[in-house]
Amino acid sequence: MVSARREGDTVIVFIPGWMSESEERRWVDEMVRRLERSEARRRSPARTGNEALQRRSIELARRYLDGEAEPTTVRWVAPMRTRWASCTPADGTIRVSERLRDAPGWVVDYVLVHELAHLLAPGHDDYFWSLVRRYPRTERAMGYLEGLSAAAGLGLVGTDGDEPPAEAPTADDVEGAAASG
Question: Which range of residues forms the domain containing residue 33?
Fold first, then answer.
């Protein structure tokens, strides 16, 4: 069996010892191509710039927040020390840490939905979490961000510095309430 994974900037390819040198070269090339294709598919188009991030936010607001959240600006910013993103509801600005540029698109989408929800509910109350949990990959994205923070030793908590309440509504609760990262 041949497999590959990325460790930082290095691609590691596992090849059985019985393969010839020419087979090894062929498989290394093939596995690098496969890994790069897979990574490209996972990347969000929002990574290309602030305009694309803004467009993606508007699309997510329409899809998950009934188009009610209307950000004035959404942009990438230098890595934040204590959060993945932030929102200023008073002026409708959303800032997303560049640390997330290489995260899977569904994680960036969760962060955007989380910040968009702040335009409708500035705090982290039950209503806010009911809005956020309309995004179907919320729990998975939260776990991804927790793992990313732990692995990098960042100590970041939650999307914008706050954790969800221990009694946060579940996806089932939201479905009933909405009838909605």
Answer: 3-42
